[in-house]
Structure formats: C-alpha cells, structure tokens
Amino acid sequence: MKANEFRQQSADNLQRQLLDLRKEQFNLRMQQGTGQLVRPSRMREVRRDIARVKTIMTEMLANTTSSHSAPAASGSGLSAAGSSK
User: GO cellular-component terms in the record (predicted)?
Assistant: First the structure.
C-alpha cells in the first residue's frame, strides 16, 4: 500500500491496519520457519508497510501535539559546567 493511501485513513484504521500487518508478519515468519513460505518477497513488503504505518502515525501525533502546545526548548537543560564527573 502507498503512503498516501495510509495518510487518508483515520488513526483508528491505522491502528487496525498495523495490527493486521503484524499478524501477517507473524504468520509469514511461521511459514518461513516450517518451509511453507511461497512468496518470500511478501515479508519485505509487510515489513515496509509496518514502517510506513508507524511513520504516518508518528507524523499524525506530532501534528496534533505541535498545534496544541508551544515548541520545546532545545538542549538538555544542563550547562557545560554541570556535566563534569
């Protein structure tokens, strides 16, 4: 599935899609372990689709939090003098 197709879905649908993809990934690993895997390329497709869904979910989360809160200050809050051992 293309990233644009995932972006058009709601957060709930993306959660369901992620769950379905993880189940499919598990089943493909079991098939590979027992020597029954017919399409090894499908494992790569599923892995990349999982990454796409997770990336889009993170983008959606970042967009909602950035519109509701002020940007975070950069740096760790420690001065150079405070980092000595």
Answer: cytosolic large ribosomal subunit
b vs e for 37-59, b when ≥16 Cβ sit within 10 Å of the residue's Cβ?
eeeeeebeebeebbebbeebbee
Helix or strand holding residue 60 (H, E) = helix 41-68
Task: State how many domains the chain has.
Answer: 1
Question: The domain containing residue 42 runs over which residues?
Answer: 3-67
pLDDT tens figures, 32-48: 999 999 999 999 999 99
Residue 49 domain flag: yes
Farthest CA pair distance, the chain: 60
Buried b (16+ CB within 10 A) or exposed e, 1-35: eeeeebeebeeeebeebbeebeebbeebeebeeee
Does 72 fall in a domain? no
